[in-house]
Amino acid sequence: MKDRFGREIDYLRISITDRCNLRCVYCMPENGIAQIPHKEILTYDEITRICRCMTGLGVHKIKLTGGEPLTRKGCATLVAMLKNLNGIEKVTLTTNGILLGEQMTDLAAAGIDDINISLDTLDAASFAKVTRRENLNQVLEGIEAVLQYPQIGLKINCVPVLEGPENLVSVAGLAKKYPLHVRFIEMMPIGYGREFQFRGEEEICQILEKVYGTMTPVKERYGNGPCHYYRIEGFQGKIGFISAMTHKFCDQCNRVRMTAEGFLKACLQYQTGTDLKGLMRSGCTDEELTEAIRKVIWEKPVSHHFTSKEVDEDEARLMSQIGG
What we know:
Layout: E1 11-15, H1 44-55, E2 61-65, H2 75-83, E3 90-95, H3 100-110, E4 114-118, H4 124-131, H5 136-147, E5 153-158, H6 166-172, H7 174-177, E6 181-185, H8 201-212, E7 215-218, E8 228-232, E9 239-242, E10 255-258, E11 263-265, E12 273-275, H9 276-281, H10 286-298, H11 319-322
Parallel strand pairs: 1-2, 1-10, 2-3, 3-4, 4-5, 5-6, 6-9
Antiparallel strand pairs: 7-8, 8-9, 10-11, 11-12
Helix pairs in contact: 1-2, 1-10, 2-3, 3-5
Protein name: GTP 3',8-cyclase
Keywords: 4Fe-4S, GTP-binding, Iron, Iron-sulfur, Lyase, Metal-binding, Molybdenum cofactor biosynthesis, Nucleotide-binding, S-adenosyl-L-methionine
InterPro entries: Aldolase_TIM, Elp3/MiaA/NifB-like_rSAM, MoaA, MoaA-like, MoaA_NifB_PqqE_Fe-S-bd_CS, MoaA_twitch, MoCo_biosynth_MoaA/MoaC, rSAM
């Protein structure tokens, strides 16, 4: 399936819950948000039905997100259901890592292919400041739990929200200590993220090279998305950057997103899309469901306009409600 601009769309990001056990300052208010009632969230059978229709359109990579996906009961069960679909090549997970220690065995048995752990700092006090929780040790235990399964790819996602270079250096050092990749993600002006200034790739590279030496670009891809990577001598893993603001990559975008309540979005910035849950619960056929998906993909916008504000259709949901 290609959109009207010729981009091949083969990747679906699914939020399976809007609930989270952290309250990161750039994502959620301190007291949380009004949660979607359980009956309004897609069931695992409904998610699987949508994914089955999408495989017929050429989608073969799925990312499960939240909120925090591991707060939803039986996440590993969904992983197994999706892995059993004909045409699905990879099922991956983005998590804050707090519950990985207790769920990793089940996720591995279900066939999870890759895991991304969101971690912005290795300093306990800074972690508590950013997340409003004191769970750093559980996240570090989650990293160790994933590393017990070398067949499962592991990436650390860091949003450079803290001042000072020390934090960037220490998080990047995880790729030296362990066989994993560390990726720095520019702050997106969505929800509470609008209140923070993003830090660009060039600035971070300069900081890291002062400590670790030359960063050499590599051509290899290590995932489903637009991240590009650098190699540093002596590191087991790579350092990557997802630079949606300073290195706009919309012309290469291969994804669509679905919220926990079944709203299919073609672009992170815009409110436009289709309510797939409403279609299914009103009794639509698989053919009608597939056609609705096809229409969203075909009409995918050419790009975001976060820096220019040329449109008035900006997404009003928080990242925890969309799926980060």
